[in-house]
């Protein structure tokens, strides 16, 4: 019997039980902080030489210069024939769908002119250069290359630099192929805090970027946190989560497998099912027991399900929505008859998968929307990675002589109220009389 | 003679001189970090009791309960009659213009349906609750209340909670009046790290918010950095900056005063003028010398101008644009004949003030655009505070049975390529045949 928690929203201490289940504290580790600080400082002051040293040490390489760590465009393109045709076609279809979806997110400049000729607006521009961190080794996901790179290219970012560690010289052909398809401009065989430092500060060989995106281990996440401000960063992600609301009419095997598809990521991943039908919850539990032994990653799934999973009996679907809005899940499946009207009631979720056919796994790869989503209740205030993360805005303000004269009086009054008389006098110079 | 630096872009070491001028390292202080960590922990675990203790200690108050620290709606409204009519009308006009401008920033939900019935899109929703930090004492700026509160209200945030310290019981009537005008829902006489902790974790009296915005001292900035993740935060601002590009045809007194209007904020503020005309730079230097003794905040201005200001001779206006794009200034004034075509060449700036009449001071108070802008070169990757900071998006995905069957094959191929077989099987369940 799989040891998944069973909660009931009618228990008097349900809210405490739920909050205990959701509780997640990112680990902060003083030893990691010190190592990362040292690596950042070394790369900042010694550039390429430090990158080569750390890469030889941490990734067990033996290169003599940064030039040997650049992965050429030809090498990226070569990967396209080193993978299977089905894989190549899969990546190309996924890229095409991701690109088409993200085109809808582009923000355009706007402005308007007032009666006295005053022009106000915002000018929207892309970042000049973005850095994409891609993990190496086992957790190397080509889908993440597409999901991080394509929004940047759609935004119009001039140059996209990818870093991916190649521990012991091992490269992942699918990752290189995805980079070729996504249009990565330059790539380096770098990883860890040193790769983040290279992108943030620039070296003789690695160009300085304006923003760094992409997932990584605790060293990478810590380094991204420390260089934030010098460059922009995307969110620092916690463990992945899925929340399923089901009315009890979907094949319980499907739902069990959907829960597994989150749980297999990581022992800390969280899979939760909300349903008003106790008998259905029992059948999903039975499906879990039946299917678990057949799974390749069963040890990870079992621990994730036991430690952080839950089957929750709710009073009705309305209550399920209320609980969901408290949880603000990364992935939300609405496995119900009318998912569209339920979705309208959802206030906080990274992505909403509507209907019994919409497995979250489709969204992870090729539906089109981004799979980089806010975790750990941060969907309360943040959004999926998107084109808007690679664009920024400048306010536009142009006053006519009349407009400046008229509004200058208000600015002067308010500036003097704040004791800022240079502000006041600067506005007053433009007042006619 | 005011001691403002004179740079020339034709010097061989110009780039190094410029980078030295721009260099700014935010201070990180271990003693501050420890104090803030302790305050956050105390408020998280002891709630109202800790808020009352810290407020009595740090703000020299003597209240018995959090209830005494709530500032009622009646008290906010009363402030509207405690200020002058000109001030009230100024705040109301500013609020109206800021609201009208920010209405243009609202992002709407969107979706599209593919041929096989697959629906894709994004649902845009406001944050439930936002917290607004307002500094107390001398640096209390009512204009900042408007600039932070109004975008949240335009976004549709349900509840806006303001915190403002009242050291020794001293309240700022203009700040309370601005809160009444902006529609702040609840207000508390709290400041420092304890106020940030109250908003981030919630207490018996202070509601937990989803995002905290607004400026503050080093304790507030440090606390915001530490609670990031539990709640969202706006940017952590550095010293204010202005960059003026002038063709040499604007009254030099006007430009000198525009430079002062940044410099008077703070000794670390930065004011830079780029101009191709050496004689004009000399006249601005003369205006600085002439006007400085007449300024109320002359000590601050003098130090800021001497330590961080510069008059820079450039080859021509095109070079001025190139240098500006490197600097990515917070405020940019284009005091030239055709500012609109020059603005199109600007890639990175917080706000662009076009034309000789558009004093930056107008933008600070009442033009409409936000005065919370990216500093310290972060305009390379970030934007003015806006309605979009109080909205977030959820991806929408709904597959038809046919769409799920068709794309399930691609998802399965890609998932198996990544070794994630629960993902693959979850997609495969939805493949017909």
TrEMBL record, chains A, B:
Keywords of the record: Amino-acid biosynthesis, Histidine biosynthesis, Metal-binding, NAD, Oxidoreductase, Zinc
Residues that hold NAD(+) according to the record: 133, 194, 217
Names of required cofactors: Zn(2+)
Molecular function as annotated in GO: histidinol dehydrogenase activity; NAD binding; zinc ion binding
Binding site for substrate: 240, 262, 265, 331, 364, 418, 423
Pfam family for this entry, one: Histidinol_dh
Keyword Cell cycle: no
Sites where the protein binds Zn(2+): 262, 265, 364, 423
Active site feature: 330-331
Swiss-Prot/TrEMBL catalytic activity: L-histidinol + 2 NAD(+) + H2O = L-histidine + 2 NADH + 3 H(+)
Record-listed E.C. numbers: 1.1.1.23
CDD domains: Histidinol_dh
GO BP of this protein: L-histidine biosynthetic process
Cofactor note as given: Binds 1 zinc ion per subunit.
Record pathway: Amino-acid biosynthesis; L-histidine biosynthesis; L-histidine from 5-phospho-alpha-D-ribose 1-diphosphate: step 9/9
GO cellular component labels: cytosol
Gene3D superfamilies in alphabetical order: 1.20.5.1300, Nitrogenase molybdenum iron protein domain
Highest taxon above the source species: Bacteria
The keyword Transport appears for this protein: no
Function: Catalyzes the sequential NAD-dependent oxidations of L-histidinol to L-histidinaldehyde and then to L-histidine.
Family the entry assigns: Belongs to the histidinol dehydrogenase family.
UniProt name for this protein: Histidinol dehydrogenase
Gene coding for it: hisD
């Amino acid at each position: 019997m799989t040891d998944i928690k069973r909660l009931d929203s009618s228990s008097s201490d349900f809210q405490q039980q739920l909050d205990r289940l959701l509780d997640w504290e990112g680990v902060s580790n003083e030893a990691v902080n010190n190592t990362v600080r040292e690596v950042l400082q070394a790369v900042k002051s010694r550039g390429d030489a430090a990158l080569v040293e750390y890469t030889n040490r941490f990734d067990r390489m033996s290169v003599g210069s940064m030039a040997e760590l650049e992965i050429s465009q030809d090498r990226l393109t070569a990967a396209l024939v080193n993978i299977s045709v089905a894989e190549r076609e899969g990546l190309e279809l996924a890229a095409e769908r991701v690109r088409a979806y993200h085109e809808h997110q582009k923000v355009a400049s706007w402005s308007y002119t007032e009666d006295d000729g005053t022009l106000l607006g915002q000018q929207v521009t892309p970042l000049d250069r973005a850095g994409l961190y891609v993990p190496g080794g086992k957790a190397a996901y080509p889908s993440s290359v597409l999901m991080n790179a394509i929004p940047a290219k759609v935004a119009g970012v001039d140059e996209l630099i990818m870093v991916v560690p190649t521990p012991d010289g091992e490269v992942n052909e699918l990752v290189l192929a995805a980079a070729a398809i996504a249009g990565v401009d330059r790539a380096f065989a770098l990883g860890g805090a040193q790769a983040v430092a290279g992108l943030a500060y620039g070296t003789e060989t690695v160009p300085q970027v304006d923003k760094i995106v992409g997932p990584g281990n605790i060293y990478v996440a810590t380094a991204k946190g420390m260089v934030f401000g010098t460059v922009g960063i995307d969110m620092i992600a916690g463990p992945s989560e899925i929340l399923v609301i089901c009315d009890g009419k979907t094949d319980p095997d499907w739902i069990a497998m959907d829960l597994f598809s989150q749980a297999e990521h990581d022992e800390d991943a969280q899979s939760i099912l909300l349903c008003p039908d106790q008998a259905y919850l029992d059948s999903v539990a039975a499906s879990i027991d039946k299917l678990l032994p057949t799974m390749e990653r069963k040890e990870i799934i079992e621990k994730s399900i036991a430690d952080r999973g839950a089957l929750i009996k709710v009073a009705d679907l309305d209550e399920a929505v209320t609980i969901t809005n408290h949880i603000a899940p990364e992935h939300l499946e609405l496995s119900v008859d009318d998912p569209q009207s339920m979705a309208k009631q959802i206030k906080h979720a990274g992505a909403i998968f509507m209907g019994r056919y919409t497995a979250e796994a489709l969204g992870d790869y090729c539906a089109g929307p981004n799979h980089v989503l806010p975790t750990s209740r941060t969907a309360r205030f943040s959004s999926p990675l998107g084109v808007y993360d690679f664009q920024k805005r400048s306010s536009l303000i142009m006053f006519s002589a009349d407009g400046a004269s008229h509004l200058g009086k208000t600015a002067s009054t308010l500036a003097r109220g704040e004791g800022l008389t240079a502000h006041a006098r600067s506005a007053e110079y433009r007042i006619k009389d």
